[in-house]
Amino acid sequence: MSLPPCPTCQSTYTYEDGANLVCPECGHEWPAQAADANADTARVWRDASGNLLQDGDTVTVIKDLKPKGSGGVIKQGTKVKNIRLVDADHDIDCKIDGFGAMSLKTEFVRKV
Length: 112
Fold this sequence. Notes:
The chain is mostly beta strands. The protein has one helix at residues 32-40, and strands at residues 15-17, 20-22, 29-31, 59-61, 79-80, 84-85, 92-96, 100-104, 109-111. A hairpin with a 6-residue loop joins strand 2 (20-22) and strand 3 (29-31). The termini are far apart. The model has no long low-confidence stretch (mean pLDDT 88).
């Protein structure tokens, strides 16, 4: 049986300790059952209406947004083309005309 690598440092020297897996290099511990469950699931992004989002989609902003560090406002109804989905706090990387590169959360957009 092959144990999964450490999710923190990717070390291959993990070992079992009761119901947990342990990494001897960084000391990270995690449940062995969670390692099995996470292997099957992939991240799924959904918009405010629950529609599945994919890279390259066009979305519409559903609420006025005030970006930090900018004097402007992204108005409700602004179309954003060719989005890129990322696994971060703000799920969408995009370019908005008049603002440039920006990150948005999926909860503030609706798929067109």
